[in-house]
Each structure stands twice: as C-alpha cells, then as structure tokens.
Amino acid sequence: MWLRLGVAEMRKLLLVVAAALCSAACTTTVAGTPKAAPTPTVTGPSGQISQYFGNLNVAGSKGPGPQREFLRETQHPDFTGDLCDLGDLTLREEPAMSTLRRDAKWRPQGGSKPRGDVYVVAVSVSVLRNGAALGEQIGLERLVLLDGKVYGFAPCPTG
C-alpha cells in the first residue's frame, strides 16, 4: 500500500527517519554499572560557618527564646557584654557561601580585633515576628573561628 504524500510531508518523514537512524547508529554503550557521584562534604571554615547559620535558623524556627539562647552561646567570648535583646523577633539568615572570605583587618565598631580567624560573608537576613516576615536586609556578617568553634556577634536593632 503506497501513501500519497506531498513534498512537505515527504520532507518531514525523511527528517524523522534520518534522525531515528542517526540516533540508533550514534549511541555508545559503556561497560559497568552506573554510580551516583558522591555528595561533596563541606569541611573546614566553610562547613562550620554554614552549619552555624543552619543552627541559627533551627533555633529561630523554635521561637525567640531558643534563638536568643543560641545567640548568647555563640557570642564571641571577647564580646559577651555586647548582647542585644531582640524581644519577640527572630531572624532567618541565608548566607551566600560563595562570598565567604577571610577578613583579618576587621574590628567591631569601637572595639579591638577579636581573637581567632575572622571571616566575612554576604547574608540575606529576614526579620520575623511569629513566623511572619517584617523586613529583609542584605549585608555582610562577620564570624570568627576560634579554637575550632564558630562565634558571631549578636545583632542589635537600630532605631
């Protein structure tokens, strides 16, 4: 049985057949069993700093009290008197870890250089009340790696 096709239909049919033949002839078989690539583990300062933000956000998801306690426990030991009360607010911070770098010359405003290795990272900070966003800001945050632990500087609201 012969089909009567116009020129346009014949061209389409020939393109489909050519594509099918090429894909069948152009495939390559690789011996072995496929394996998923291992998930890279982040170690060193980058991994520890990323974990700090994860822990900060988990504490914030539990409420102002647990996040306040987290900020108190992770306040740099040279600056424990510089804590601020965020009241009923919590923070959610998302760091852009690709911006993480050492910042050896940084000093807190009016303070001396903190002990340890200072790092700076760009962070998107959401301020929340009862889980509802009140505002968002993008800025730089400093953290310090001292004796194998990451310390921060608790944020203080500005009026």
UniProtKB/TrEMBL annotation:
Designated name of the protein: Lipoprotein
Keywords assigned: Signal
Signal peptide: 1-31
Recorded superkingdom: Bacteria
